[in-house]
């Protein structure tokens, strides 16, 4: 009977995310998808047909995991969700293994630690949201728990082979999230101090550093840099801003308190399990050092898109891991208690809270296709790919948007610098407004998209800038726009995309001007957007920038053969 109940809960744990979770079309995740698409086509580490290698992805491991799904033509938002579901299930298994390693005397009820951990993650809207967003954050969880598990084994036996596994997982974690360099280092340090032979530990450490140096050398040969392009953006913000931490502490206060009191009760009822556990003491030191490093990391960087508290996912997972172990430690190894906990788990899982559910997992695939077709960025990218005869001959400037270059195989210039290495290095450069403007001007772009929140008409003077790009001040952005105007850009229409208005510009000096004008006009006439009757005015205190309406612009006389397919 006990085995039947265990299998029932195990199956329900796997089915629950397939029945309740859903994909979210996230343009940030499409940056990964675009890299994976090009990787599958043999255009390794490049973002567009120009073939320029760039490390605009945070996690090379996650990007490579997406490649087989791209080759099988499985929608990548769905693939990302499946990868994240598997990651959480592996993390739950590792939480069970961590409990067994720390409290072997409670092995009979140890599987409950994994179940409670999984319940906590499934009922956390931030974590389930991140699973649906399709970012690399969740993939980091099992790798980091694997690092913690092997560190605990090292704390117990002090053998070199355990230290080698810790170093391997530490290195693997660096391929998922760069901040793991500071988050994993405390576990490596405490692990080294636990070695019975420090000399062997030094030997392993030297081998690790040698391999790491080799990987950095390979990165430099491929990308011309050893850090991701996103590093320059994240390290350009104002440091020591505690607001992100404050919002996290406020949101998770209702979790901190029960975990704290569970720990107090454990100290009272199971004092020997806590105070006389050498491995647990070292693990506590590792957690404290790791959380301290995480706080310093958050205070140092500028989280551009910190939705769903994704930069503090490791803190959340640590909280649930500790809480699930405290809870399981307090349970007596009585069959009735186990049945009660397992039955409650099944009920909670299949209740789904306030989340909608589907009748079968196959519907998840159909939902993913439907959401893709409804996304405005996706629709625009597919339309341009269909209408433009030779997309590789057309250049488009936009922010680090992934959906459009995923579906539209154009030469894509990311003004925010995430996928454009030269622009990434401009965040702290002197006279960056001139260098950025000259760089973009030299590319003789055909089209440009300026994305702003709400409508420009409702925004005050000097409200326009590139908060995620190198042109952070209104004055720098105004200089850039004036350069675009002098280069021949005119206003060609606007579409609404979620909280943004996308304003299109077409270069009147482009040999493709006539066809691009017709292609965009047809798109607007389909009800997908509109063209203002007036010119497009961007207000700045030192003088407005006005882009002439495309309908009043003279079409240049050129002998181009045209680029449209169906016009």
Task: Write out key terms for the chains shown.
24 helices, 567 residues, disordered C terminus, alpha/beta, two-stranded antiparallel ribbon, single chain
Kindly report the spatial arrangement of strands forming the biggest sheet. 2-1-3-5-4
Mean pLDDT rating = 85
Distance between the termini: 69 Å
**Rg estimate, integer Å:** 27 Å
Count every helix, treating DSSP H or I runs of 4 or more residues as helices.
24
Main sheet overview = 5 strands, mixed
Low-confidence stretches: 558-567
Helix content percent band = 55-70%
Q: Could you tell me the strand content as a percent range?
A: 5-15%
Q: What's the β-strand tally?
A: 7
Which descriptor suits the 3D outline?
elongated
Number of domains: 2
Task: Name the structural class.
Answer: alpha/beta
Q: Could you explain the architecture of this structure?
A:
- This protein has 2 domains: 2-351, no CATH class; 375-552, no CATH class.
- It is of the alpha/beta class.
- It contains 24 helices and 7 strands.
- 59% of the residues lie in helices and 7% in strands.
- It has helices at 2-20, 29-40, 60-71, 76-102, 111-122, 125-133, 140-157, 160-174, 180-193, 198-223, 229-234, 243-251, 253-269, 271-275, 278-300, 313-330, 335-351, 362-374, 376-387, 403-407, 421-424, 432-442, 474-487, 513-528; strands at 395-398, 411-414, 447-453, 489-497, 500-507, 536-538, 545-547.
- It has a 5-stranded mixed β-sheet.
Task: Write the SSE topology.
Blueprint: H1 2-20, H2 29-40, H3 60-71, H4 76-102, H5 111-122, H6 125-133, H7 140-157, H8 160-174, H9 180-193, H10 198-223, H11 229-234, H12 243-251, H13 253-269, H14 271-275, H15 278-300, H16 313-330, H17 335-351, H18 362-374, H19 376-387, E1 395-398, H20 403-407, E2 411-414, H21 421-424, H22 432-442, E3 447-453, H23 474-487, E4 489-497, E5 500-507, H24 513-528, E6 536-538, E7 545-547
Parallel strand pairs: 1-2, 1-3
Antiparallel strand pairs: 3-5, 4-5, 6-7
Helix pairs in contact: 1-5, 1-17, 2-3, 3-4, 4-5, 4-7, 5-16, 5-17, 7-8, 7-9, 7-15, 8-9, 8-10, 9-15, 13-16, 22-23
């Amino acid at each position: 009977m006990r085995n039947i109940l265990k299998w029932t809960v195990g199956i329900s744990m796997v089915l629950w995310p397939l029945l309740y979770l859903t994909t979210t079309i996230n343009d940030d995740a499409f940056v990964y998808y675009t890299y994976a698409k090009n990787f599958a086509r043999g255009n390794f580490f490049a973002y567009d047909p120009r073939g320029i290698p760039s490390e605009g992805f945070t996690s090379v491991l996650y990007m490579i995991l997406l490649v087989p799904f791209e080759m099988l033509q499985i929608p990548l938002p769905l693939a990302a969700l499946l990868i994240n579901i598997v990651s959480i299930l592996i993390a739950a298994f590792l939480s069970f293994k961590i409990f067994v390693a720390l409290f072997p005397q409670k092995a009979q009820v140890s599987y409950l630690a994994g179940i409670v951990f999984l319940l906590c993650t499934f009922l956390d809207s931030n974590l389930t949201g991140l699973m649906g967003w399709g970012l690399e954050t969740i993939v980091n969880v099992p790798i980091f728990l694997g690092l913690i598990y092997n560190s605990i084994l090292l704390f117990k036996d002090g053998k070199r082979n355990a230290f080698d596994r810790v170093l391997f997982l530490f290195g693997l974690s660096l391929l998922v999230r760069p901040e793991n360099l500071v988050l994993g280092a405390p576990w490596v340090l405490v692990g080294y101090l636990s070695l019975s032979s420090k000399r062997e530990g030094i030997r392993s450490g030297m081998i690790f550093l040698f391999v790491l140096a080799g990987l950095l050398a390979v990165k430099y040969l491929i990308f011309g840099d050893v850090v991701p392009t996103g590093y320059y953006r994240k390290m350009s913000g104002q440091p020591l801003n505690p607001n992100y931490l404050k919002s996290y502490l406020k949101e998770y206060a209702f979790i901190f308190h029960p975990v704290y009191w569970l720990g107090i009760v454990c100290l009272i009822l199971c004092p020997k399990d806590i105070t006389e556990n050498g491995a647990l003491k070292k693990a506590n030191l590792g957690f404290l050092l790791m959380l301290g490093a995480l706080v310093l990391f958050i205070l140092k960087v500028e989280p551009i898109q910190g939705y769903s508290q994704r930069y503090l996912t490791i803190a959340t997972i640590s909280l649930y891991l500790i809480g699930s172990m405290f809870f399981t430690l307090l349970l007596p190894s009585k069959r009735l208690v186990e049945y009660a906990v397992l039955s409650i788990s099944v009920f909670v899982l299949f209740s789904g809270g306030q989340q909608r559910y589907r009748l079968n997992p196959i519907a998840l695939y159909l939902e993913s296709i439907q959401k893709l077709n409804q996304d405005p960025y996706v629709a625009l990218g597919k339309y341009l790919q269909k209408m433009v005869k030779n997309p590789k001959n057309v250049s488009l400037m936009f922010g680090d948007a992934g959906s459009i270059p995923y579906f539209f195989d154009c030469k894509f210039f990311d003004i925010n610098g995430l996928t454009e290495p030269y622009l990434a290095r401009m965040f702290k450069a002197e006279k960056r407004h001139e260098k950025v403007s000259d760089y973009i001007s030299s590319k003789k772009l055909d089209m440009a998209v300026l994305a702003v929140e709400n409508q420009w008409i409702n925004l005050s003077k000097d409200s326009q800038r590139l908060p995620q790009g190198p042109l952070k001040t209104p004055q720098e952005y105004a200089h850039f726009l004036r350069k675009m105007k002098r280069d021949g850009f005119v206003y060609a229409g606007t579409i609404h995309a979620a909280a943004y208005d996308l304003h299109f510009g077409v270069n009147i000096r482009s040999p493709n001007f006539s066809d691009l004008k017709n292609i965009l006009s047809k798109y607007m006439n389909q009800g997908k957007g509109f063209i203002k009757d007036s010119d497009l005015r961007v207000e700045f205190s030192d003088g407005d920038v006005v882009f002439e309406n495309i309908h009043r612009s003279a079409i240049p006389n050129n002998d181009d053969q045209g680029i449209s397919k169906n016009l």
